[in-house]
Amino acid sequence: MKSSATSDALRSAAAGGTLRSASRTRAFSSACPADTKINVQDVTDFRRRRGDLVFSLIMVAVALFFLVFFFTQTGWEDRKLPANMARYWMDQFGITSPEDRPARLGRILKQSWIAPLACLVVLVPAALWNLYGSVRAYRWRARFQLPNDVAHELTQWARALEFVAWFIAYTMLVPVLGYLVSTLLLGTALPWRLGYRGKRWMGICLGASFAIVLVFRTGLQIRTPVNIWLYDQLPQGLSTFMKVWF
Amino acid sequence: MEALWQGIDNLAAWPVLVAILIGSVGGLAIGAVPGIGPAIAIAILLPATVFLDDLVSLVLLLGVYGSSMYGGAIPAILINTPGTPVNALTTYDGYAMTRRGEAARGLSLAYSASFFGGCFSILLGLSALMVFGPYLRDLGALFGQRDIFMAAALGAVLLIAAHRRNMGIAALLFAFGVLIAMIGRQSLKQIDRYTFGIDYLYPGFNLIVVIVGIFAISQALFLLTGKDADPPEARLRGGLLRGFGELKQHPAVVTISAGYGTVIGIIPGVGEFVAQFFSYATARALSTEPGKFGRGAPDGLIASEASNNAVPAAAMVPLLALGVPGEALTAMMMVVFFDAGIKPGPDIFENNADFLFSLFIALLIINVLVVLTLLISTRWIARIIYVPNRLLGAFILILAFVGVFSIRNSFTDCMFAAGFGFLGYILRRLDWPLVPIVLGLVLGSIMIDKLTAGSSQIKTVFDLVNRPVSGTLFVVILCVLAFTFVTSLRQRRFEH
Fold first, then answer.
1. Banded model confidence at residue B269, pLDDT cuts 50, 70, 90
2. Interface ipTM > 0.85
């Protein structure tokens, strides 16, 4: 996995910092630009970014959403608990001695609402704690007049949505044109959109897309949609061949 | 011994050997590309494993896992950019060697140290299996449902504690992952949890859909919206064999580093980073010339590479012995175990001992194969560094579709994977960790299952911790919590 922590490290590498080379006069074998050093701290360090506050608020909203629906969506209405819970817990920890045979804890633990409750006990405070940290970081950045504008970050998120749309369009195209044609189409159109144009790039992209189809569909026989509109328009023999192999 | 021979026999099949070859070479290539890592490759390959034999699937994924760090050392040494995050420390001394015109020496030392580290932990594991195998068969009796529950809880605590600087976020995302795992119809009481009457949600989210979304699609979006890196030209001169001879001059460093990788790799949630830091610090402390560290010291490079390559075999131990994955990659492998109907856990020593031997021997073969491949083809593999990032993003997106769709023939799965991909993209942008969500999904499911299964034995709260194993693990959890609390307080005071 290439974590975002590494991205930090790479950025730090790009930013500068002199590498103390013992013998600078000898020939280099790498044309890597001005010597940089990856800081170990960068790999494990964490700094809140622009947009952190917005996402922290979203996470609080998500936590509260789960909390609000806990009472109706987890079987909480059908809970089976001892009448006096305070006394029950005191009995459990031996603070008081039980008057009669206490309900087995296991009977409570296997009820459907217990696990969501345990989760919410962590999720809600953690979301609020994180929001507090995010607000503090926001104020700190504002105080030192560091870039704090979330619009830039939201624009980046919106940019990613364009490629999510490509992915969804591809998903919807497969039952119409088939896996082979759709993959060749996306495998060339998306690189074209990204700026990889010209015969060489298109050739590479077509080859790579075809290889993916050959490996996954033809070779590994991985399931792809079966009712393909385009394949149904083909003559019977060719249609069957395409459905089986592509 | 019978299990050992059976394990070797299991591997002597063409599909298994081909999977080892593809996994090893593929992992090398993937590791060598800065921007792609083994997690993405494994996430994309996971759905394909449904169609493959269980051993074939596992050795394929192990191949990717075991070889990616070898590949990651190439850009770390040649262009000062780690191929995988765990190669970050390799840049310290590896790139300094390249600047001195000793790139081939650096690579050669990295390969030999990696090979030693990998083989050290595998042979240790194999020896332990052979020596303690008969006793391990009795281990099943010691580990009940409550013990596994407590082991998973320890994994969760260690995972959160390991995120020193953002424990709140790690806890938040872990709990979020567990909640996602809970969505759907509870099998025991047939009660729907957070389904809101939506048919799709009744069976719950498929683990592979979430993994592909969070790791693969999010990385594709990250690459697609980023800029192409323009890596500098790197030339390689000289042979790659001399490092194997030079390694003999640093026996203490390489052995201690491999030992750190093995021991720390076993601890769930801690991983390669900690092992590397310990190894590097120890190597510097042992060195007669500590001032050379960071300036091309061979012991620094050896420490980094030997320790991180010792981790994959060690990380399999908690997964196989307890059924508790310690990090994202082994969590993904757990999915293959689920599909294969093999229950990792103490019973595996009794029921599938040959399978265990097969996995460890496969890892050994992978290490040998990778080193041979590298010795022959480093110059060609190094060219992979120059594949444009955004083009890779486009093809990861294409591969993600086939991965997700093939699981259940469901377009809704693809939509949800896209949604999780977008979530993962935002997390990457904000530098929030992704691993807690996936481990929350896996460990959360284990914790709930084990607690439910063991509920008939729990009369009082003390029944959770009154067994030897669960009690010990509970004490360890308390110690970790106390240690984390104290060190966090100290760090805060220091910062203020």
1. low
2. no
